[in-house]
Amino acid sequence: MDPTRAQPANHEFRPAGRAQRLPKGLRPKRQVLRALSASLLLAAQLTAASECPAGDPLVVVDTAAHKLRLCENGTAVRAFHVALGRGGTRKRKEGDNKTPLGVYPLGTPQLSTRFGLFIPIGYPTKEQAAAGLTGTDVGIHGPDQQFTWLGRARSWSDWTAGCVAVGTEEAIQAIAAWVTTKKVDVVQLK
Question: What are the two backbone dihedrals, phi and then psi, of residue 40, each rounded to the nearest 5 degrees?
């Protein structure tokens, strides 16, 4: 033993880097580990199920997670990071720069000189308009063509006037193709 090295009192010295085992009484039981593993797996399955409701294909935008999911049969077949309105969510009026929440009709993808592709969202609904909510040109679109040099960074912060924007041309093309192929006509923004 090296007398120049300080040794902890009443403890056996073990060189660094060697694994140490817990005393028998402090080791977790296999049943506990199995139960913990099962509960984590169940939690992951419940989370995945809540991301995409069962039923017809639809687009789901989780505004808190900044994720757009293409949902089919209760499963996300693809997911994309998105930017939202710079004013947050719960759109109420034209110009508030907020992204609306709710279930809306989804229009046919259209060409856009500014965004490449634009998929209209039917906000406000007739009921919302009757209640005084206003707004136009809300949709899902690609990145602003003026900032193509930013790449995926275009979806890192919320910058839109109330729309949902993906960061790449490839992403909006994939979404538009899926919406067209699957005849998706509903978007849920939550």
Answer: -65, -40
CA–CA–CA angle 146, 151, 154 (5° rounding): 70
Q: Does residue 44 lie within any of the structural domains?
A: no
Q: Give the domain extent around 138.
A: 55-189
Q: Lay out the sheet containing 67-72: strands in order across.
A: 102-105, 186-189, 58-62, 67-72, 75-83, 164-166, 139-141, 116-120, 110-112
Question: How confident is the model over 30-83, as pLDDT tens digits?
Answer: 554 454 444 444 334 434 446 999 999 999 999 999 999 999 999 999 999 999
Rounded to 10 degrees, what is the CA torsion of 78, 79, 85, 86?
A: -150
31 belongs to a structural domain: no
CATH assignment at residue 141: 2.40.440.10
